[in-house]
Amino acid sequence: MQKAPIRFACAVVALGAAATVALSGVNASPAAAPAAQAGPQGERLTIGFVTHFIGNPFIKQIAQAARDAGKDLGVDVKITGTAGFDPAAQLKMVQDLVAAGADGVSTSITGDSMAVGLNKLVAQGKPIVQFNIYSTRVNGPYVGERSVDDWAILGKAVRKEMGGASAKGRVLIGTCAPGFPALVDRIKGVRRGLGAGLDIKGPFDVTGDPTKNFTAWQQLIAANPDAKALIGVCAQDLENLGKLNAQKGDKYITAGGDPTLGNLAALEGGHGLISIGQTGYVQGYLPIKMIVEALRSKKALPKKGFVASGVEVITKSGAIEDFGLPKLTLAQIKRFQTDAAVQRRYYKPLFTGKGKLANWRNDVEPLANASR
């Protein structure tokens, strides 16, 4: 069966009403930018950045990275977004930004219905870069996680904790959006890492609402008292699993994704084993860099393609980061969420000089690799 074209790797899925929320995202004043930072016609560049779940902590990290890229590159970044999945609203935001003078836009793609409108803008010479969620129908590259391979790391870690090659027992897998392609890919990766010989149940619908998610997992545990491991593929899962595990005397092996404060608390307290991160900072910073460099060099972006944002393996002892970045302690990861300057200093070397993503065109892969 052929997969739907949309893929995503966002922090929290909370389907429902999607009232739009606009944020002020204008960076340094135009007078502060040197002449070398001007656009193709001599004016200062303006780049739009449109996201979903704009109030979510993970999305805030992505948006902050986009602001940082604007400061480093001497361009104005205008940030806006929706409170949930609303492709029509997102497309209109992109179109409105371009109508107001944006030279290019980076956006998450919450529906294939955005593709026709976005491709019209690309045909008009407006570069578009997808981040976090993508569609194969959009004529612009994508920056995000490598779903299957990255989540296989989590499955292997759980298998090892269950006893390795001789592991036996029941594993419950939960998802916040059943059937959503990238979450299906994550689950495929988890299953691959877990390997054969285990009683794997699910994926169960544990919803995207944090409160309902807690209750859903509570009910699953009650219905499966002999379960040994509990795995959620959305950001709210590990925090709630950690709380439930603490109530049960930490009898379960729990795992999930993303470095939210709640997930980090679960790991730090010994109530969770592992969280897989997708380096949200790269997903915010690199698309701005790609668009700006394409405009200044007048070298078009790839019509398709994928640049991996990297995988973060987060445990109680800290985070092993991708791209050769130094290992982080949990305290350092927490500080990133409260101190933007510290976060910026840590990641900036990736994009400059001999940094791993400084020459990003060398890292463009086939788009199909995003779901590998």
Kindly, what is the distance between the CA atoms of the first and last residues, rounded to a whole number of angstroms?
16 Å
Return Rg in Å: 20 Å
Beta percentage is 15-25%
Q: Would you tell me the structural class of the helices and strands?
A: alpha/beta
Sequence of secondary-structure elements: EEEHEHEHEEEHEHEHEHEHEHEEEHH
Helix count equals 11
**Main sheet: strands, sense, barrel:** 7 strands, mixed
Count of all domains: 2
Give unreliable regions as ranges: 11-37
Q: Care to give the gist of this entry?
A:
This protein is an alpha/beta fold. It folds into 2 domains: about 5-145 and about 280-310 and about 340-370, Rossmann fold, CATH 3.40.50; about 145-275, 3-Layer(aba) Sandwich (Rossmann fold). The chain is built from 11 helices and 16 strands.
List its salient traits.
Rossmann fold, alpha/beta, 2 domains, globular, 7-stranded mixed sheet
